[in-house]
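Here's what a typical entry looks like (Starch-binding associating with outer membrane):
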Amino acid sequence: MKNHIKISILFLFVLMGCEDFLDIAPTAAVSSGNYFVDDQQLETGVIAMYDAIQGVNSTSTSDNHSIQYEFYITEMRSDNTRTKSSEGEAAQFESYTIQSTNGIVLDYYRSMYNVIYRANLVLENIDVASDANRDQFEGEAKFVRAYAYFNLVRLFGDVPLLDRVIGPEDEALSFTRTSTADVYSLITSDLQDAVAKLGKVSINRASKAAAQAMLAKVYLTQGTNYVEAQQLLEAIIGTEYSLEDDFRDVFYSESNDEVIFAIGYLPDLTSDSQNFSSEWLNAVGRTSGVNYVTTEAREALDNLGGARTQYSYRQDQRQPTEYQVVKYLPDGDESLGIPATSTDPTLAGNDWIVIRYADVLLMHVEAIMAGANETSSGSAISSFQQVRSRAGITTPVATITKEDLLNERRVELAFENHRWFDLVRLGVARDVLSAFSAANNYSFSDTDLLLPIPQAEINLSKGLLTQNPGY
């Protein structure tokens, strides 16, 4: 990943030996207790957290692919994308027929707990840090832990809450589901600490602004603390971040001023590249077309996207009846002025953007709206119009409705794994996805608002870990 600090082979052996969060205690001769002795060693642990989010670029089902699989359980469960062939485990997401044995769901669940384990490992050893670096390392670890739990609680509901590295005597904690309220309590506390402790390192590591933006989204998701969310967002607005003039540059001019937090990748290196963007192409990645753009998403972009549309989706060059995501194209597109990022699309170097300034501006509108169906606030209109103006849409608005906000978020953040969460957070998932399902002969029901707890984890727990209703 970008700004990579090489981790020693010995430390990788110890740390990666706990790839599954259920592997309670490493048995190697060198343990975390005697490895971490100063800032240099602790920073390897910090970098390892981001490596866990980055995921492994491989075809092995035993590896944690982390966010490289995230589009399956977010975009492809929404009305934005689908598979080309409606076959295999991937098709379960588009048709709302997800099984508890789905390997992609298991991979993501275990990946996020591996991220949490690594964050807890840093926090357990934070006392070795110098006064100069302690706050930064602690803030990063708490941001990363909050990030992983925020994804888990929104996708699975009640989940095991592990706020420290556990030993064999605490194994039951790995399988004991904790209420969403308690999970959110830890997320909020971690992000508040991160806001207080963090400065700015690089876009590929946690910063104060990233923590502020994520905490604001946590408040919006809970439907509480709208004033605090607005204040957090206004602390970012007007600072060093700004919208790129050209929408294309957001994705193809990396480390730009719009990106607040991104997971970095390097091209042509198996250890630091990604292959999810090649999976979205036809017969280039391991699959033959996933994350294909739905008719509904194309219509939204055609009608509301403005200058964003051509950089959001394109006609499949191999199969003209289908349409592909343009953001993150690994092999480029000369007709759109998009360069290739690697010599091999399956070893792509495109960063994955988690938080960017346009999202902050649209969350600002949402915070001012404060759960109402519309707002005519001048501050909200200013933020809303900045995003639209960049897309060449200059028609002034006097009022912003919740539907306007949802539509704008859809076309601005299309295929960036926001749509599912937006529908749920703004209280329209049931209605929107029921209509989408009916129009496409899918089988959406209330059960599908949460993913199943992976059956493999339930089996490991010997029944202690319970399943979500309907699975």
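Residues 95 and 440 are 9 Å apart (CA to CA).

More examples are in the samples folder.
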